[in-house]
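A.,

Following up on our hallway conversation. Structure tokens first:
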């Protein structure tokens, strides 16, 4: 079974994908570390004429320490809950409202995801049509929920609570 050319091709592609991902991760990590090293060196060189070499190193080291402490503080503090104590008017929010709230809470991640989807959809027309269909379904659901909510609000107060027999 493993002698099949299709299986061997799939295994080769999977191994190549994993190796490519690992190589990209190593290269990006090396670039990040090198970039931080160059920034620290540039900051030290820029502050040396003003403060002297030892004071410049102390200021840059203290700022790096504060930045590291801020990162660890943000990593260790508990996450905020999605609902901010405001009860929703209906039992469950619409998917569109939940996505809008998620975008409001995470704007940078949302922009990155939109950028990645934009690049991915550019090369694949099937993905583009799938995304457009999904968006249309969500918009239709939101309109239907809005119309249903309006009908409930427009109904007389006595009609809302009386059961239909």
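Then the amino acids I'd put at each of the 165 positions:
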């Amino acid at each position: 079974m493993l002698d099949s050319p299709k299986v061997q091709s799939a295994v080769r592609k999977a191994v190549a994908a994993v190796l490519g991902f690992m190589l990209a991760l190593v290269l990006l990590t090396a670039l990040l570390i090198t970039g931080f090293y160059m920034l620290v060196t540039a900051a030290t060189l820029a502050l040396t004429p003003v403060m002297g070499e030892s004071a410049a190193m102390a200021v840059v080291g203290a700022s790096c320490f504060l930045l590291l402490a801020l990162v660890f503080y943000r990593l260790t503090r508990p996450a905020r809950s999605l609902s901010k104590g405001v009860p929703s008017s209906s039992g469950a929010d619409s998917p569109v409202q939940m996505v809008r709230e998620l975008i409001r809470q995470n704007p940078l991640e949302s922009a990155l995801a939109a950028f990645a989807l934009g690049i991915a959809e550019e090369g694949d027309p099937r993905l583009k049509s799938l995304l457009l269909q999904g968006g249309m379904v969500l918009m239709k659901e939101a309109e239907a929920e809005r119309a249903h909510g309006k009908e409930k609000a427009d109904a007389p107060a006595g009609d809302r609570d009386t059961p239909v027999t």
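The chain is about 80% helix and 0% strand. Curious whether your intuition agrees with the design.

B.
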